[in-house]
Design goal:
The chain is an alpha/beta fold. It has five helices and 14 strands. The chain has an eight-stranded mixed beta sheet with strand order 5-4-1-6-9-10-12-13, sandwiched between helices. The longest helix has 16 residues. The structure holds cytidine-5'-triphosphate. Cytidine-5'-triphosphate binds next to helix 3 and strand 9.
Length: 216
């Protein structure tokens, strides 16, 4: 099977030396890519800037901004059977990018931001993806309700939901604890474990659920 995986943060430039980004380390997406490769799948890993090395044997496409990530996904999505969107894509970017380094002057500065492309939300209707679609949801409250809503709104087959209000899991951590949200309100809670171990469980679940249903 061929999988597309997005990972890491995006960087949205303010001027030639500054950007808006987030704390995503890319570890969950890279662990998923490694686990999928280990399981014998072909992997296209579309990654924002991270400080970790890509797993051996995966095809790495490096991107910087949400727009770059959208374009890379557009190029590769429909050659894949499964797409896992684990990237922490910036939701907003500066409306104007200064051509030169901005000099400080006034005491206050307001940056005007505009929405970025919703890559996961575009996969179905805009990009015509008909494979198995997995999104991530990082929430600080009402985890399952928000994740089930995201599953429906974005046409996903699975949402990997994690509660980012808990210290030591999720963003920029070595471990994660997630609940899988599936159509029909089904949920599967997975225990806290390393991102590498969790990635193997997720790839096994996704492989099983995305396999064509053969009637007896
Ligand atoms: N995502 C994406 N493109 C974006 C933003 C998010 O592909 N511009 C993907 C992430 O990779 C992740 C999921 O969408 O799989 C996270 O969604 P999130 O941004 O939390 O969803 P929304 O419901 O749009 O956001 P909010 O919780 O802010 O309502």
């Amino acid at each position: 099977m061929r999988l597309l995986i997005t990972a890491g943060p995006t960087r949205e430039p303010i001027d030639p030396v500054r950007f808006i980004s987030n704390r995503s380390s890319g570890r969950m997406g890279y662990a998923l890519a490694a686990a999928a490769h280990e399981a014998g799948h072909e992997v296209i890993l579309i990654s924002g800037p991270v400080a970790i090395s890509p797993p051996a044997g995966v095809r790495l496409v490096q991107v910087e901004t949400a727009r770059d990530m959208f374009e890379a996904v557009q190029t590769h999505l429909n050659s894949c059977e499964v797409a896992i969107f684990s990237a922490a894509v910036a939701d907003y970017r500066p409306l104007d990018i200064a051509g030169q380094k901005m000099k400080k002057s006034a005491e206050r500065l307001t940056l005007e931001l505009e929405r970025t492309e919703d890559i996961l939300g575009s996969a179905r209707a805009k990009l015509g993806f008909s494979g198995f679609l997995v999104g991530f949801a990082a929430e600080t409250e009402n985890l399952i309700t928000h994740a089930q809503d995201k599953l429906q709104r974005k046409g996903c087959d699975m949402i990997v939901a994690n509660d980012v209000s808990q210290a030591g899991i999720g963003f920029d951590s070595a471990e994660n604890e997630v609940t899988l949200c599936l159509p029909g309100g089904r949920t599967i809670a997975l225990p806290k474990q390393s991102k590498a171990a969790l990635a193997r469980v997720l790839i096994a679940q996704i492989t099983q659920l995305s396999a064509p249903q053969v009637s007896p």
